Amino acid sequence: MTVTRRLWSQLTRHTRRALAVPALALASATLVLPQPAQALTVMLNFTGSSTTDMWGVTTVSESFASWGFGMSINQLRNATLAAVIDDFHGFPSLGGDANSPLPVGKQLNIDFEISFGLTAPTSGDSDYYFVNIGDASPNQGFLGQACYGCVRGNGSPAAVGSQVGSVLTDTIAGLLPLADNDTERLNLLVGTLTHEIGHTLLLDHPSGPQTNPGESIYSVMSTGAFPTSMPNNQRILDRDFSYAEFQTLIRTVGLRDIPTHQVPEPASWLLVAAAAALASRRRSTTRLH
Which residues form the Ice-binding protein C-terminal domain (predicted)? Predict the structure, then answer.
């Protein structure tokens, strides 16, 4: 039995993120989430060989072996994809949050896929861009970078298929002492990834805390440097776009109806139940982004 997207969205986003890691750790197949064709698609490019983005930062493959995840590299990639989709498609609607700018029954008109070596979307979408994920070569000393508004928003779009940003896993690994479990480790990675994708869609660093539905008073677009000066310990939390930032995304990306057909989600109800059981058992026994 699969979980419909609408039914899955009725869970709080924090419940979904909490369940995603243990549930996906039980799965071995590559996660595939069918989406409407011909939408903007951002490819999460887990670098397989030396790859250089449009700003000249080169990344090489990262196995994540030293990160301490209790899952395989394939499961980690699936969990990363599911978490990014949750950040963009799991934002609460006006029906459940009076502060939300998102109408009921709508979602952002954007899709995400995993890429290996700059592979094009399997959906056939023709409007796609890559964000590289890997170790910097040489080390850059910052967590990630991306072009501002070059995918949507500033009138000077990058060419289709461009590598519009990079998430530098070797620098992020320096924050691992802050994390105590897989969910917090995933938040370190995905927080930077969602942040960089946000830059390409015309989102900038806020000047401080902003009202949002996430676990932190700081939005996912916050930075550790000026003007936000967010403490690093906020990075292990499941941060979200602020309501103001999501309003910008609605303007730059546009909306579509939430698909009503059934699709494979990060887990079936069987895996969700298994994840809940595991959780219960555990309870008992600038540029600086």
Answer: 262-283
| Distance separating alpha carbons of residues 135 and 168, to the nearest angstrom | 5
- Complete DSSP assignment for 77-89: HHHHHHHHHHHHH
H-run or E-run covering 118 = none
Q: In this structure, what DSSP letter does residue 92 have?
A: P
Mean local confidence (pLDDT), 116-126: 91
283, with CB counted inside 10 A (0-12, 13-18, 19+), is: exposed
pLDDT digits (tens, 9 = 90+) for 149-161: 999 988 789 999 9
Binned at pLDDT 50, 70 and 90, residue 38 comes out as low
End-to-end CA separation in angstroms for the chain: 40
* SS3 call for 33: coil
Residue 99 reports pLDDT greater than 60: yes
